[in-house]
Amino acid sequence: MTIRTVPTTPFPDQNPGTSGLRKRVSVFQQPGYLENFVQAVFDAAELPRGATLVVGGDGRYFNRQAIQTVLRMAAANGVGRVLVGRGGILSTPAASCVIRERKADGGIILSASHNPGGPNGDFGVKYNLSNGGPAPEQVTSAIARRTREISEYRTVDAPDVHLDRDGDHQLGDLRVTVVDPVADYAELMERLFDFDSLRGLFANGRFRMLFDAMHAVTGPYAKEILERRLGAPGGTVMNGQPLEDFGGGHPDPNLTYAHDLVERMKGGSAPDFGAASDGDGDRNMILGRDFFVTPSDSLAILAANAKLARGYSNGLAGVARSMPTSAAVDQVAKRLRVGCYETPTGWKFFGNLLDAGRITLCGEESFGTGSDHVREKDGLWAVLFWLNILAKRGESVEQIVRTHWRDFGRNYYTRHDYEEVPADAAKAVMARVQEQLASLLGTTVAGRRVQSADDFAYHDAVDGSTSEHQGLRIIFADGARIVYRLSGTGTSGATLRVYIESVEPDASEQNRDAQDALRDLIAASLELSDLRRLTGRNAPTVIT
Ligand code: VG1
Ligand code: CO
Predict the structure, then answer these.
(1) Per-block average pLDDT, block size 10, for the chain (544 residues)?
(2) Ligand 1 in reach of 252 Cβ (< 6 A)
(3) Which of 210, 219, 479, 496 has the highest Cβ tally under 10 A?
């Protein structure tokens, strides 16, 4: 099979963001666009000759076509073997799992995660290393640099590989093995959690749950694990059929976009437990009957109850959270006397801490929770962890959360997103906050004293690298915080995120609605940033 070298010219906008390169499908469909980026990955990755890669995606529109392109280019770039999920499907955590279990040299995951899909939606490409985790900044910067100087890419002329048939296919010197996308992952889950006690939970018929796969990648995983292996009744998994356009919805498990599930979790006859995952299966939303668990609280509760799960029965080495995530888990770490790290937003920053054995659990306020079992956040894992805790404690979700607040204090928390704001307006808001940081120190805002105000920079304790400009934060003496950040995953205009938190140690004050409890701080965040005037927006697009 002859290798073809195709001349090309750079595209100026191929910078990976918080999690891979994300663009509109129409952008990826331009001749050479995907090819340039994939070639830049191969050029920057410095893989050994004959390397093994894992390839799969979340099943969105353009997934199958992109996989064929990646396979041809892998064949032309000296890759020896590619493991690809059947039908081109691999959830992000399952891809991470397969990379680790099969000792691959890395992986390419095709996904724009929680962004909408379909011909008018988004597509994305992520590159992961041999630890199974997202490429760190040094590697993504090298890829971005390469995209700006690329002049040719390599491919082979070959028919499409049959992705729906398990087993080996030859593409020149490249062996492509189509694997079951669920098997390795489901086995890993069986090792971490006590499936017998989970089966018991469903067997008595009194416990009911709903899992919303949002027509995205977790459908097949949830059906296999929850309905087949754990015996939950058929219909437990809703929207379980992956669709190329996710049924027209945002595959983003939050109170706005997982609306149907939220409705079904209301009222006395609602199920005991509800959960949802996103486009590529790495996010999770946890609900009780009439009760929403914030992702920040969920992380803290998993940490406090970790010993109830088989895979974590020896306790935790440490924990980490992204900077905007509430400090609820910090309280647990203090009690457990384990290390607690604060990283920039994006899973890639947890990789070194996990690899070095400094942390066992980590999470983000954006519905991401995970552990050292893989190197990505993992939606279904979090759901199984919660089920495990519910089975062992025999209490409701709400009881568990309220008891946790009583023991550790409650961190009232909310995130207000302003989506598709003109880039200039979003920058102006950030600049407005930035210019006040120094003078805010020691002043009183919303009745609280400002203890520190800065532009968050992270120093990686493992490799010594520094990442700057990771969000503007105003921290109050009583533990409250306001954080401003620009999203790095959007594909149109800018998304401005405002994160607001306060700490309530007094149990009698822990029953308020978060928007209500945070009213003063929310008002202060708008005033400080002059957000309404600068963006022309009167309300956030999404509140969580
Ligand atoms: C968002 C979240 C971040 C998460 C990232 C990828 O990034 O805030 O916490 O790691 O999405 O998640 P940003 O830059 O838009 O705030 V996923 O599930 O979309 O891969
Ligand atoms: Co995701």
Answers:
(1) 94 91 96 98 95 97 98 97 97 98 98 94 97 94 97 96 94 96 97 95 91 97 97 96 93 92 95 97 97 97 98 97 98 97 96 97 98 98 98 96 98 96 96 96 94 96 93 97 91 91 96 96 96 95 91
(2) no
(3) 496
377 Cα nearest atom in ligand 1: 18
CA–CA distance, 37 with 114 (Å, rounded to integer):
21
Q: What is the pLDDT of residue 489?
A: 79
Both structure tokens of 475:
């921290």
Identify whether the C-beta of residue 351 lies closer than 8 Å to the C-beta of residue 375.
yes
pTM: 0.94
The SS3 of residue 418 is strand
* Index of the ligand 1 atom closest to the CA of residue 126: 20
Interval between CA 379 and ligand 2 midpoint (Å): 9
Res 204: pLDDT:
79
Q: How many helices (H) and strands (E) does the chain have?
A: 19, 27
User: Bridge-partner residues for 278, per DSSP?
Assistant: none
Contact 485/412 with Cβ under 8 angstroms?
no
Ligand 1 atom nearest 283 alpha carbon:
18
User: Could you tell me how far CA 241 lies from the centroid of its own chain?
Assistant: 21
Q: What pLDDT does 53 receive?
A: 98
pLDDT at 174: 96
> What is the model's pLDDT at position 1?
78
283 C-alpha to center of ligand 2: Å? Answer: 5
Task: Give the closest residue (by CA) to ligand 1 atom 20.
Answer: 113
Closest ligand (CA of 365)? 1
To test the ligand 1 pocket, which listed residue (19, 60, 218, 349) has its Cβ within 8 A of the most ligand atoms?
19
C-alpha torsion 209→215→218→223, nearest 10 = 50
The active-site residue, picked from 19, 91, 96, 113, is 113
Q: Is 153 in contact with 38 (CB distance < 8 Å)?
A: yes
Reading the block at residue 493, the tokens are 């205009």
Supply the residue whose CA is at minimum distance from atom 13 of ligand 1. Answer: 487
Assess whether 269 carries a catalytic annotation.
no
Question: Angle CA(289)–CA(293)–CA(297) in degrees, nearest 5?
Answer: 150
Q: What pLDDT score does 490 carry?
A: 74
